Amino acid sequence: MDFLNEKIKTIYFKYLSAAFGSALITSIYSIVDMAMVGQYHGPEGSAALAVVAPVWNIIYSFGLLMGIGGSILFSTIRGKADGNERKSNEYFTASVIGSIVLALIIWALIICFDRQLLVFFGAQDHTLTLAREYVRPIKVAIPFFLFNQMLAAYLRNDKNPALATGAVLAGGIFNIFGDYFFVFVCDMGAYGAGLATAIGSTISFLAMLSHFFMKKNTLRLVRPERLFGKLKEILVTGFSTFFIDVAMGILTILFNRQIMIYLGTNALAVYGVIVNISTFVQCCHFPVLRTLLPASAAEYLFHILFPGADEA
Fold first, then answer.
1. Residue 59, SS3?
2. For the chain, first and last CA: distance in Å?
3. Are 135 and 114 in contact (CB under 8 A)?
4. Could you tell me what percent of the chain has a pLDDT over 90?
5. pLDDT above 60: residue 4
6. Is 138 within 8 Å of 131 (Cβ atoms)?
7. What is the pTM of this model?
8. Residues whose CB is less than 8 angstroms from the CB of residue 24 and which lie 6 or more positions away in sequence, other chains included
């Protein structure tokens, strides 16, 4: 896919279908988990997953911070000239390093302080027990959730949006059927839903890694110059996307806590459903903007460097 020579409309709809599909299946993850756990445990199960919802916002937001922030700079440099592959890969490497650091920090926090975090997010009594059961298998796969967001952004910018979508679809489809199997057939309840989600995320991650064995792959790990400077650029570029997602998590925490104080578990279960509907709506409109990033970054820089090229 040639960002500079192909028609924008063609590129846009190719990327839109890919981005929309992957975003949609991500929202379905949460909806299916809540439906299965709610059916198995009742309102307390739905409430427990509402408590866990901010965890996803936080993890995904950091993945998007590194992925969107870095991939915009990656595409901008690729738009300059064919000889900038190494420099663009310095941003990819910086994103990988940043993602590793963030994943390790989040991993350590959730493993060591899961109870305290869930209580802070609004869990109480049996809701806390169910939330911890759900999170227990997910602890193992936490880095994969963050890396999936980061890699998906880079795969779209490395002209392989179909793989990014296919990887997320593969994990999502497994999660849907795995939820039913582990929750009901294996009688695992909330733990089974968490296990299916963790395995689904791992499948998506492994599928995305296949990109690095393809001939079309141009992503390379290189030694970046001025690593901290590049990380700062990535943080600045991706901050707006990060802020939107993390703000949703903060709002969910505030609502969870107030609902549990004044209305109780049943009300939180209802709110959990509303949160999932909100996530679904977000996943429908976010791809419209994110689809523009790969082509627009390259196009913009091309016209800055070569004004009047179209007329020529």
1. helix
2. 23
3. yes
4. 39
5. no
6. no
7. 0.83
8. 280, 283, 284
**Six-digit token string for 73:** 């700079």
d(CA 182, CA 185): 6
- Between CA 13 and CA 67 the distance in angstroms is 21
Q: Are 92 and 70 in contact (CB under 8 A)?
A: yes
d(CA 178, CA 200): 8
* CA nearest to 150, candidates 107, 202, 196, 95: 95
pLDDT digits (tens, 9 = 90+) for 55-68: 888 888 899 899 88
286/68 Cα distance (integer angstroms): 12
pLDDT in tens, 10-53: 656 655 655 565 566 567 777 888 889 988 999 899 899 989 98
Residue 2 above 80 pLDDT? no
Contact 174, 168 (CB under 8 A): no
Domain ranges of the chain: 8-305
pLDDT computed for residue 216 by the predictor: 86
Output phi, psi for 187, to 5 deg: 60, 45
Residue 282: other Cβ atoms inside 10 A: 15
Whole-angstrom Cα distance, residue 161 to residue 145? 18
